[in-house]
């Protein structure tokens, strides 16, 4: 017997809330039944577009026992309070990344949800892309041998598309700039593939875009396994671009947006293309959340995992400021 769709409310109305709502419609496993944001115009427009009820307050959503979960795309600075309120009301939470602006808040969000017995899942859809899943399966099967190195780039062109009034583009709303906003996706992928990062070195620059936040960033990451990875994130490049190369003693994989996935085994002289289908990563993310709510399973990217990812970014930001490599464990301990 098929379970009925998970009844959720959308909290925070922006472009990403629409992306998630569109994916919910494609899925059928999740139904957005209510929404709230402080702007009456935005919430009524969202409600009309997605056929849900525009609530007068967040408290009204939390008081509705028929609503099982919250899809939270609010600013990072209010993730703790909005999630605390949801957990207290027994609502499960799908929270957009990053989990918070500080490691201490991320840890508190994770603790609250664990103690309340509600599912907390973080929105990291990039890790679900079929090329990364293929690389992960090959690594887990031992066919890469010892992993030694990786390099990634995640870039978008934001020139002329930059809204200085948005919290996403300010140092107060998104400390760490482009690396915290989009680079954290590839920190997640790198830790998924190469294991936890123990130390980070960083460089940040503001070269093209207005405002007070870095639009170019670079991290050198030392993994606990001994592997070293390099990650660049940019909002100042000429076009959108994604790249991830993973090197092992026995095999390597090369992915980029324009050429797709290629694979090279030890002894071969030419990388061979690997056919992977483009998958609906955001739909899969939503459906995993529903599965965890219904079964009690643990999400791939729970609060504790997301707090570690955040700590890696914060270590890189501190490194750029202090001019030295920073241990991730020190950042976790300080809660910065």
Summarize the topology.
Blueprint: E1 6-11, H1 15-27, E2 30-36, H2 40-50, E3 53-54, H3 58-62, E4 69-72, H4 79-88, E5 92-96, H5 103-116, E6 120-123, H6 130-140, E7 147-157, H7 178-194, E8 197-205, E9 216-223, E10 228-234, E11 236-248, E12 251-256, E13 260-265, E14 272-274, H8 281-295, H9 303-322, E15 326-327, H10 328-334
Parallel strand pairs: 1-2, 1-4, 2-3, 4-5, 5-6, 7-10
Antiparallel strand pairs: 7-11, 8-9, 8-15, 9-10, 11-12, 12-13, 13-14
Q: What would you call the structural class?
A: alpha/beta
The number of domains is 2
Residue share in helix: 25-40%
The fold-level CATH name of the largest domain is Dihydrodipicolinate Reductase, domain 2
Report strand order across the widest sheet.
14-13-12-11-7-10-9-8-15
Strand content is: 25-35%
From the structure provided, what is the oligomeric state, counting identical versus distinct chains? single chain
Q: How many beta-strand elements? A: 15
- Using the coordinates above, name the CATH class of the largest domain: Alpha Beta
- What is the straight-line distance between the termini? 47 Å
CATH architecture of the largest domain: 2-Layer Sandwich
What is the CATH superfamily of the largest domain?
A: Dihydrodipicolinate Reductase, domain 2
Q: What gross morphology would you assign? A: globular
What's the pLDDT, averaged over the residues? 96
What about the largest sheet?
Answer: 9 strands, mixed
Residue runs with pLDDT of under 50 for 5 or more positions: none
Rg estimate, integer Å: 20 Å
Helices and strands, in order, run as EHEHEHEHEHEHEHEEEEEEEHHEH
Task: State the helix count.
Answer: 10
């Amino acid at each position: 017997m098929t379970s009925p769709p998970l009844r959720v409310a959308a909290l925070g109305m922006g472009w990403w809330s629409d992306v998630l709502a569109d994916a919910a419609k494609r899925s059928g496993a999740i139904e957005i039944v209510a929404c709230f944001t402080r702007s009456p115009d935005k919430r009524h427009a969202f409600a009309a577009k997605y056929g849900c009820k525009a609530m007068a307050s967040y408290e009204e959503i939390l008081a509705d026992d028929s609503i099982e979960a919250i899809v939270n795309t609010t600013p990072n600075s209010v993730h703790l309070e909005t999630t605390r309120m949801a957990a207290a009301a027994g609502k499960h939470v799908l929270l957009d990344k990053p989990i918070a602006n500080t490691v201490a808040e991320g840890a508190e969000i994770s603790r609250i949800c664990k103690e309340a017995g509600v599912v907390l899942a973080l929105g990291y859809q990039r890790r679900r892309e079929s090329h990364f899943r293929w690389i992960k399966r090959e690594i887990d099967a031992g066919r890469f041998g010892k992993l030694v190195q990786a390099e990634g780039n995640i870039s978008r062109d934001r020139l002329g598309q930059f809204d200085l009034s948005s919290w996403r583009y300010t140092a107060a709303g998104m400390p760490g700039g482009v690396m915290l906003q989009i680079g954290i996706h590839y920190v997640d992928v790198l830790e998924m593939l190469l294991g936890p990062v123990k130390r980070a070195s960083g460089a940040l620059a503001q070269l093209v875009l207005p405002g007070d936040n870095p639009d170019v960033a670079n991290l050198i990451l030392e993994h606990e396994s001994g592997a070293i990875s390099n990650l660049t994130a940019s909002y100042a490049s000429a076009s959108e671009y994604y790249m991830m190369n993973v090197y092992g003693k026995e095999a390597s994989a090369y992915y980029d947006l324009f050429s797709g996935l290629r694979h090279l085994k030890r002894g071969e002289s030419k990388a061979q293309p690997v056919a992977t289908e483009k998958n609906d990563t955001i739909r899969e993310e939503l459906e995993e959340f529903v599965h965890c709510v219904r079964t009690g399973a643990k999400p791939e990217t729970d609060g504790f995992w997301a707090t570690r990812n955040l700590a890696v970014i914060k270590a890189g930001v501190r490194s750029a400021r202090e001019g030295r490599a920073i241990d991730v464990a020190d950042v976790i301990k300080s809660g910065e």
